[in-house]
Design goal:
With 233 residues, the protein is α/β, with parallel strands linked by helices. 32% of the residues lie in helices and 27% in strands. It is built from seven helices and ten strands.
Length: 233
Amino acid sequence: MTDSTPPTPSLAAPALAAHALTRIVPLGERRLTLLDDVSLSVATGESLAIVGASGSGKTTLLGLLAGLDRPDGGSVAWHGETVSTLSEDALAKRRQGAVGFVFQSFQLLPALTALENVMLPLELAGADDAEARARDWLRRVGLAERLDHLPRQLSGGEQQRVAIARAFVAAPRIVFADEPTGNLDTATGAEIIELMFSLNRAQGTTLVLVTHDAELAARCDHMVRLAHGKVQA
């Protein structure tokens, strides 16, 4: 099997598994350990909250789980396939359509409309029905009347709804979210939480969240608490 041909996911394997993850970066003449021997697994359709104080390693762990960074030790597997050792090109192909991302700062392209932002991952994957699917997802997140608005014409909550639609539009098996309510007021954050878990249930998508939001963490099936790069009991 070549890197360009995605393998069939193992139904018996967890959606996401990490074993003994370690991440070390140089700091002058010293080496700083950002993560130390972190292991976890999440079953298909479940949700995981990664919590901890600032600097505890939460975003570093999310980046490794999502394949955005490489571990110095240990491994990451999606549905039974080890992805942490794939080449950059092969990993990019695996991510396409298989994982989605939601960021605290929304990460929408400012020159594209809401519709165009949601269409983008489908167009990159060569889908011929990108516009219809993007319209449907913007309707699902309550933005059917805002298709042609640029990000600067949308509120923070509306921008995050566009980001959620973009994350789910390609029917990913896993969605990673980094502080998805961090830039929102309490009421809007609660709406976004409800929306994400509603879509999680409807799609059977595995959800992995980094959050400071106690309410959001409490909604997840599992929680991993980090301190100084280590999992706390």
